[in-house]
Amino acid sequence: QLQLVESGGGLVQPGGSLRLSCAASGFTLDYYAIGWFRQAPGKEREGLSCISSGGGSSNYADSVKGRFTISRDNAKNTVYLQMNSLKPEDTAIYYCAASRLFRLCVRAEYDYWGQGTQVTVSS
Q1: Range with the lowest mean pLDDT among 23-32, 38-47, 60-69, 89-98?
Q2: What is the CA radius of gyration of the chain?
Q3: What is the DSSP string of 3-64?
Q4: What is the dihedral of CA 6, 82, 72, 32, to 10 degrees?
């Protein structure tokens, strides 16, 4: 069964950093584009960053560009999201998702989803 599991969330002070991990089980990530999304209470799920299956292409939402970095280690079947200079408005549940195609970094393009990990940025 294809599963994605996010980890690395938690409570961090403004200006701090976290690294999220997205680990796959039941399938290999090599053939999938992976995206990171987040959803804050009362808001739509937002695409943050997506990376192609080989890692050669990636994109970022304006809200995180320059602060977040997506990467993947296919040997470890894991994709990462390094988050720096965190702000209170980054507080949300963060999800990773997989797609066979690397196109738009939007919810509708992604088929397989993890359960999410909570990130809270607060002093």
Answers
A1: 23-32
A2: 13
A3: EEEEE--EEE-TT--EEEEEEEESS-GGG-EEEEEEE-TTS--EEEEEE-TTSS-EEE-TTT
A4: 60
Q: Do the Cβ atoms of 45 and 95 come closer than 8 Å? A: yes
How do residues 57-89 score in pLDDT, each as one tens digit? 999 999 999 999 999 999 999 999 999 999 999
DSSP string spanning 73-94?
Answer: EGGGTEEEEEE-S--GGG-EEE
Q: Report the alpha-carbon distance of residue 37 to residue 97 in Å, rounded.
A: 8
Instruction: Give the C-alpha separation, 97 to 52, whole Å.
Output: 12
DSSP conformational letter for 72: E
The structure tokens 């993947």 sit at 72
